[in-house]
Amino acid sequence: MASFPFFTFSTNSLILLVLLNLTYLLAAKHSKYASHHNHYHHHHHPLAASNARLHQASNDRLHQAFIALQALKHAIYSDPKNYTTSWVGPSVCSYEGIYCAPALDNPEIQVVAGIDLNHADIAGFLPDELGLLTDLALIHLNSNRFCGILPLTLANLSLLYELDLSNNRFVGPFPTVVLSLPTIGYLDLRFNNFEGPVPPELYQKKLDAIFLNDNRLTNIIPTGVAGSSASVLVFANNNYGGCLPPSIVHFANTLEELVLINTNLTGCLPQEVGFLYKLRVLDVSFNNIVGPIPYSIAGLAHLEQLNLGFNKLSGIVPAGVCMLPDLANFTLSNNFFCEEEGICQNLTSRGIVFDDRRNCLVEKPNQRSKRECNAVLEHPVDCFEHPCECGEAAAFPPTISPMPTSVPLPSPSIAPTPL
Ligand SMILES: *[C@@H]1O[C@H](CO)[C@@H](O)[C@H](O)[C@H]1NC(C)=O
Ligand SMILES: *[C@@H]1O[C@H](CO)[C@@H](O)[C@H](O)[C@H]1NC(C)=O
Ligand SMILES: *[C@@H]1O[C@H](CO)[C@@H](O)[C@H](O)[C@H]1NC(C)=O
Ligand SMILES: *[C@@H]1O[C@H](CO)[C@@H](O)[C@H](O)[C@H]1NC(C)=O
Ligand SMILES: *[C@@H]1O[C@H](CO)[C@@H](O)[C@H](O)[C@H]1NC(C)=O
């Protein structure tokens, strides 16, 4: 399915600097040639002198970091891999999972710029003292057992660029504290228990990728959304419980992947979905979408993956969609389509992976029964009579077919990031 995007850290060159530094430090710290680095210090390598000075004494900011990290250590109930065993004494830069770099505003001093505890399996909560780590550029807590809510003091992290809290046990409403992070560019909250509406302000942040899948979030694309810079939106396995609003068009200038699998999406697909001219992946499978395929989808010149499977779509599969130049995989199984136009009848002849099983296509094998089809097709849906407004589910006549009870397995693009 969806490919993982390559993130462009072009938003802020200062942040880029920190990230580059961190990348270097991450590599160096894990390198088995670490002793060679020490060796350099004894020779008069140009970097050695400044490194020595940097490592010298603690400074006030490292002392603040010491307070914050000790508070975090005390908020940990279980650390089966002993990540925090090394968190003793004031040398926070040598703590496992803690990465230091020269301060942006004063390259002479070292500050804590990154926390990377991915896959540590730690159980605990995030204490208020994390607000003291004002030099943090990245926090990676993927695949731990952190619980509770995010402390409001995180608003203090004015340099934070990447926040990955995926695959933890955070709860409560959408953590609005992330909206006050001025430089946030990558937000990954998937596989937690956040619930309730997603604030429209989220889309005003300069976020490149937004991963919210596998929570209990509602109203995922508020109708009032005015624009966004995101290229990837993954909302699968939440409870949207409404229709896709025409305001999705405001994502057109950047959006390349839209993944809304199993979000209790209702109503018709708006024509505007076809105005997202950069889309490569559109997956709205396992929902309650009714009506026809908007013809505008035939204009998505870069579309590679189109998954409409497990909905209540009906009508004709338009030839224009099947002729899209980059189309590689088109799934429309488990709907109520009654006709495939032109080339759509044999997409394998174009080398496209295609699944049209369990529809109402009289000339194709593995279709629904006549009775099942008639029950739905006798009540054609008029999308103009039920426009999607205010994120509300339009009142559509009930349909007969039961929804699948099994939840689709997370595909690679919605699984937690490996590191
Ligand atoms: C962590 O430390 C405890 C106590 O020293 C030890 O029993 C355990 O084996 C260590 N676990 C790992 C994964 O190193
Ligand atoms: C925010 O950061 C400043 C240092 O820049 C610190 O003095 C202050 O205590 C922090 N506030 C919180 C709530 O952590
Ligand atoms: C789907 O959303 C509707 C509101 O549109 C709600 O009534 C229903 O309970 C939701 N279904 C599930 C399974 O949560
Ligand atoms: C095509 O897409 C479907 C639905 O997303 C997926 O299950 C299948 O693995 C894909 N096939 C290929 C060959 O990419
Ligand atoms: C589809 O096209 C391929 C190659 O052109 C052909 O071998 C196959 O028989 C066709 N299938 C149907 C059902 O027409």
From TrEMBL:
First and last residue of the signal peptide: 1-28
A cellular component annotation (GO) from this entry: membrane
SUPFAM superfamilies: L domain-like
Gene symbol of the encoding locus: LOC107408555
Keywords for the protein's UniProt record, in alphabetical order: Leucine-rich repeat, Repeat, Secreted, Signal
UniProt superkingdom: Eukaryota
Protein name: Leucine-rich repeat extensin-like protein 4
Pfam family, any one: LRR_1
Cellular compartments annotated: Secreted
